[in-house]
Structure formats: structure tokens, C-alpha cells
Design goal:
alpha/beta; Rossmann fold; 7-stranded mixed sheet; globular
Length: about 200
Amino acid sequence: MVHIYKCLLVGDAGVGKTTFIKRHLTGEFQKKYQATLGVNLTPVDFHTSGGEIIFKVYDCAGHPANMGDNWQGYWPGADGVIVMYDVTSSISRDNIRSWVDKVKTVCGPNTPIVLAGNKVDIAKARSQTYSPHSDQHFRLSAKTNLNYEKPFLWLARKLLANPDLEFVAGPPIMAPELVVDAALAAALYNDRMTAVLDDNDEELE
């Protein structure tokens, strides 16, 4: 059985959304930044212990000038949302709340949302302290392949109501651009990070 879900990928410009998708789709790591204009639709296929899952990913422009006039027209009906930010950018981190609020307003308050903090391979990010929080937040690196599949796995488990679901075959990903520091990898193994939302936000759905 094939499960097909509509997934939004939102977040500020330059946080790595398109690179993240290309890494899943072709294994390519996009080194040169190119701003997304409007919305790019890309199907991303996963083989899981619960059957095949296809996420129809709507990669949305992160800058208002590039969103286009009908950007909200693509959002309704989303089954799940990945809100991505740059762990080295306080601005993109501060804007998480704004993106979450937009998603809840347009897609509904019960839409599953997962946070993805990209670029943990950068030295500035490596010096940060990692502490327990929710499994709804992941720090990852499209450059090193670290945890890059975790946001989709979380959504798949949520949408299929199967917490034990696993991916049984990976995408054709290329070798990492660099190898992440072993200490950082160990700190991130259980997908922990400090809270990025208000203290009363135990769940994003």
C-alpha cells in the first residue's frame, strides 16, 4: 500500500530547505544558494516498515518578496509541516513562532508540525549546549547527513499512528561533504535541543 501525504517545508530564506530536499531526492548537496521563488513541488519517496510513503513536499520561499501573491493557496490541506531554521542564525530561530502561527492559521491548529534546525556542522553551532526537550525538534545537517531523515520519519510515524515505524531503505544520498565531530554526533543522537517555543508549548499540533 502506498501512503501519499502533502507536506509543507517552510522557514526563512537561506536556512537550507531546498538543499535538504535535493539531498533526499538525488543525494546532491547544493553548495550555491539560490532563492526559491514561489513554491516548488517535489515528491519524496520512502520505503518503510509500514509500506511506501510519498511526501508531496511543497518547498516554500522564505522571503516575502519571493512568495508570490498566491502562496497561501498552496498551504490548505497539508497533512504535515516541517518548519526549518538555521541553528547559527538567531533571526531565523526567532522567526519560528511566526512560521508556526502562519501554519496553524492557514492549515488548522491540529496539523502536525516538526521543527528542523539545520547547519549543525558549522563551528558556531558546535559550541552550543544541547539539553533534553521534545522529540518534535531535530537538529540536523544536510552537509554531513546527520539526522537529515528524522523530520520525515517523525511525520511518517505521526501520520500513520505508528511510533515504531522505520525507514527500511534510504534515498540515493551521496557521501557527506564533511564528517561531523563525534562528540556533537553523540550529543545529537537522541534528537535533543533546547526549547525554541514558549514554555507552555508542549506540543505544536
